[in-house]
Amino acid sequence: MGDVLTTRVVGNVGIVEIDSPPVNALSTDVRSAVIEGLRIHNADDAVAAIVLLCAGRTFFAGADIAEFDNLPIRQPDFDALMAAAESSAKPVVAAIHGTALGGGLELALSCNYRVAVSSAKLGLPEVNLGILPGAGGTQRLPRLVGAGVALDMILTGKPVGAAKAAEMGLIDQVVEDGKLEEAALAFAQDVIAQGAPLPKVRDKAVAGGLDDLEAVKATHKRQFKGFKAPGHIVQAVEAAITLPFDEGLRREKDLFGELLVSRESEAQRHVFFAQRLTAKVPDIGKDVPILPIRKVGVIGAGTMGGGITMNFLQAGIPVTLVEMKQEAIDRGIATIRKNYERTAAKGRMTTDQVEQLMGLITPALSLDALADVDLVVEAVFEEISIKKDIFGKLDAICRDGAILASNTSFLDLNDIASATKRPEWVVGLHFFSPANVMPLLEVVRGAHTSKEVIGTVMKLAGTIKKTPVLAGVCHGFIANRIMEHLIVQSQQMALEGVPLRTIDKVMNDYGFAMGPIAMLDLIGLDVLVHGAEGRTLMGDFVEAGRRGQKTGKGFYDYDADRKATLSDEAAKIITDFAAYAGIKSDPDQSDEAILKRLLYPVVNEGTKCIEEGIALRASDIDVAAILGYNWPVFTGGPMFWGDTIGAKVLLAGLQELEPRYGPAFKPSALLEKLAADGGEIAKL
Ligand code: 3HC
Asked: Where would I find the 3-hydroxyacyl-CoA dehydrogenase C-terminal domain in this sequence (predicted)?
């Protein structure tokens, strides 16, 4: 059992302490250790009650997710673990700190009592992994907190704090942080003194009936689309209401088993680990110093610059915000304030907090104000000459050791860096719009960017609550580069006469919340047309005053509720442009053909990003697409989905499409190799 299990006796209370870093996941060894600890104290006549707790930063964070790749789950399995806790002849008190999640909370529910420190969080987040609580959680939680509340917790996967948990009846006592062991021992002593019969959650009746589930289901309706787990979760909670406990458990186990082997769950587990891998850069070890970022400068107070600024403010980092004109800075600051005030109006922030955040902004009208900042993020117009001019000036103004970052989304970072005498301090920080909301941050490593700078900004991403994905210098970096195919091909199909609604519907059916045409309207056609040469379809739209949703019309017309309807004017712009460009009409495309044409080149481009060393690994590309473009998570991202299709099938599809639709469909050498060797795309 190694060092995982420690047992000790204090007075007449036996303590089972588990120590399995980093998060005490319930691996086979940990399950064995808990069972063994309970057995030892049950066999000891000097022990009258047992406290179960964990060392390190948290109570059990759930099943060891990696073990789900090697089914069946080894013995002792979760049934054995829960039975050991529930059938203990002596009262068991779960003593919780950190997070009691998934199987961890289910274990606590199998104990007789639960105490938790006030900072603890408790939840059943299995839905995020495409599964359901499979260790009795769907049967025991409704018995403690009621069916409706339980369903809500399991469907959202959101943990609750200790105070709320106590209010709900999920735990018996909230104790002071840092005093968990002594408080749990005192609690156990009380239990012994009372000598009451052992309470078991399984013996309780479920409060609430099937009707209570309907309202909860309706609230989370959107969550069901494309995902399999939510429907199974409802069935399991229904079983808690309609079946005796043991039958309910069997039902839960069947449903859990179905989900565990589903491709959706495999995909979501892939994403779980992929998101934690992105920050790991092979040549940047612990020896690389991380520089302190105490003060930031942002150049440009437009939509992007304002959003970027908000990230730093929320992390408590003061920002000097620079604009050229007073009215521009005033407008930018007013927008930030409006955003925060809207949050406050929803009760998610106090007015004092709004003032505190706003107090961290220092407005400025000259780059000279950036002389002492640790990091500058430039977010001005996407024009190379302007950016180079700014970086040349920053080189003269900023102190030695300041990081100079550009938020460029398509321009050559090396060219920008060449305007300075310190290219090793220049890096790309590519935020996604709206920058204060979207969780992705592409960190662009230039030819000369130093390890220190990369290490520092990868860490900084965590501080501002972003997931960093490292990218090399190329047109569009990772997310925009791969997704550009979807945008270009959907326009191309529109020009061939494929109905806009059909194009959007195929992507909706695939799992995107928004189809590509609707997305163009949301981004703004004027934004997208910027920099394009010659006559373009989007240029024609902009010229006709159809700039997208913000003007009430783009590819679609929009009413006051942003509901899209088809437009004769838009249809004419499309046919006129198709005639001008000599594009042949080919409107009758099957859904399958549309899907292939839109998504196969995305996966292919992903393999090119790996081939060229632009992305570190395939799973980073999946994270970039999911977090930057809302790619449906249950597919695992484009690269993981590529394996669902299979490299061979993809290759054949691209080979068929290339002669008709051009070089965007030319298969990469890497994909050809995978198709020949039988390798997996997502493992690249
Ligand atoms: N299994 C395996 N590894 C896990 C894990 C788990 N349940 N939870 C976390 N880890 C690993 C992470 O991969 C990471 O590894 P790395 O250092 O090699 O990258 C390390 O532990 C630390 O994790 P985080 O970086 O996420 O650390 P944080 O401190 O930010 O967050 C946490 C801690 C809140 C516990 C978070 O890790 C988390 O949410 N974990 C998953 C919880 C979960 O989903 N539990 C349910 C599992 S399924 C289940 O229990 C089924 C049951 O019903 C039968």
From this structure: 476-558, 594-678
Structure tokens at 130: 């495409």
- What's the CATH fold of domain 480-581? N-(1-d-carboxylethyl)-l-norvaline Dehydrogenase; domain 2 (1.10.1040)
Residue 223 has a pLDDT of 79
Helix (H, G, I), strand (E, B) or coil at 324: coil
Residue whose structure tokens are 């195929």? 506
Cα separation, 591 vs 653, whole angstroms: 15
Architecture of the domain made up of 296-474: 3-Layer(aba) Sandwich (3.40)
Q: Which of 23, 265, 286 to mutate to test the pocket of ligand 1 (most atoms within 8 A of CB)?
A: 23
Q: How many Cβ atoms sit within 10 Å of the Cβ of residue 71?
A: 10
In the three-class reduction of DSSP (H, G, I as helix; E, B as strand; rest coil), residue 679 is classed as coil
Each residue's pLDDT tens digit, 161-172: 999 999 999 999
Instruction: Report yes or no for ipTM above 0.95.
Output: yes
> How many residues appear in the chain?
684
Return the pLDDT at 1.
Answer: 53
**For residue 23, how far is its CA from the centre of ligand 1 (angstroms)?**
6
User: Is CATH 3.90.226.10 the classification given to domain 5-261?
Assistant: yes
**Could you tell me the distance, in angstroms and rounded to a whole number, from the CA of residue 595 to the centre of ligand 1?**
34
**In the structure, which protein residues have their CB atom closer than 6 angstroms to any atom of ligand 1?**
22-23, 25, 58, 61-66, 78, 99, 101-103, 106, 125-126, 129, 133-135, 137, 273, 276
Same-fold call for 480-581 versus 591-683: yes
Catalytic machinery residues = 106, 126
Instruction: Determine the pLDDT at residue 2.
Output: 61
Task: Return the pLDDT at 657.
Answer: 96
Atom 6, ligand 1: residue with shortest CA distance: 64
Burial category of 384 from C-beta neighbours within 10 Å (exposed 0-12, middle 13-18, buried 19 and up): middle
